[in-house]
Specification:
heterodimer; A: MetI-like fold; B: mainly alpha; MetI-like fold; about 80% helix
Chain lengths: ~270, ~280
Amino acid sequence: MTNPRALRQKLVAAPYLVWAAVFIVVPLAMVAYYAFTDPAGNFTLSNFHEIAGFSHTFILSIWLGLLSTIICLLISYPLAYLITRCSPKTQRLLMVLVMLPMWINLLLRTYALMKLLEDTGFINELLSLLHLPPVHLINTEGAVVAGMVYNFIPYMILPIYNVMTRIETPVLEASRDLGCNGFQTFRRVVFPLSIPGIVSGVTMVFVPSVSTFYISSKLGGSITLVGDIIEYTFNSEANYNTGATMSLILMGMILLCMLVMNQFTGGDEEAILV
Amino acid sequence: MKQKRSLSPGALLYLVVVFALMYAPIAVLVFFSFNAGSSTSQFTGFSLRWYLSLFQNRYVLQALYNTLLLAAASAVISTLLGTAAAVGIDRMRRWPRRVVNAVTNVPMMNPDIVTGVSMLLLFVFAGRLLHRESVLGFWTLLIAHVTFNLPYVILSVLPVLSRVDRHLSEAAQDLGCTPAAAFFKVVLPAISSGIVTGFIMAFTLSVDDFVISFFTAGPSFTTLPLYIYSMTKKPVRPDINALSTLMFVVVLVLLVLINLREDKEAKREKQKGARQ
């Protein structure tokens, strides 16, 4: 099948393949190169030893990322379900309301939240008007999690809503005709069918949460996450070796999570087919 | 299922509370953008001074121009490259196709900070090769934006392309078209919806990007998100409130317009269906 026409048709992808090789594959290789060398360019594993001192930062990042992902899921799942129960016109309106904040820059959304949570911010001003004691909200882990949930929750609602709208009414009716009550229908039909949406929502919230640096620096005060350290080592210290090592580990971690998640859906898709 | 359309009061309350929380910070910002004072917690009187100061700020206007220029350029390049790539990938056999798809997914799956950092390393290396102090600027930003836009274009075109009947293109060629003419006359119109979606996605992603730009931009070329970043570093900048409000209004208008158009199209489809 090596006629010239087929060859030419494959060649249209060539510019992209070159682009992807130079600007996707080579940069990743450079991250790996910097992670395994010292500033002079000699092979070393000392970067990884150095990173061991930051293990608490990694654990904190994963913990806060997980926490915000779980909170997003707990809020979004019922929300998406309720939206699918509305009339088509209301559904469209509500989905516009879900997507609208996504289009506003992350920096502005975080800034807005910061202005709300500050010690002299809107919430505390309201409390003092009501003669209530002030609450300290900003620069806590709670504020960082709130920032992650607030910024990334549309990415959880959207995929869950999308899979739920694809569950057709006859399927639900069949389940009821076969003797399931509302809860059983949910547990045996709606929930298994919505798992692909949950999985993509979870990755879309977890990845940006775990790797953020802006949210933690604005809402977390002295709380440092992996992203903050990568940002600092590249911009303030110009210490590319440490920064590259952290990026490599972060990438590996996320890849591992994705593999686990994919196993999850893979198995369930088969279950649905059976 | 008699009462499919009506929600219980508890469910309604839940919807209202979640949406209220989602919009509270933005509402506060919009409200205080009209504040005469510079506080974001105490309202001292109505004023448009922050809007005025925003429009007189030539850095903001320059950053806005830069952002739109970069978004347009990167969207055009990534749409051209990405559409061609999708056509080629569609013809690939299983094994090479898998490899290419895996590489294509990388910028989407990777955290933005890793993509940004990896491109910075490449640009620093290129700078060393060229014996230049720094190569960071418009061109590095353009390369970075095209790179993170490409997967979205390819993934919007590929599914549409796979639905196009291959025999159509062959029929056109049997009727005397050159393969290129067959592509432009038959295949391209059929996949135009995917291409438009990809272009719009690329444009909006580029306008919105902060993290990757943060690592690949130099001092010579500042985009709006980068300028906002430098603004939010200072403790009191009430003109941010005005800027946020304006951006919010622009997005709102755009979404409403898109929705209205979709409404119209849905209606037209319905009428068509009824006639048939």
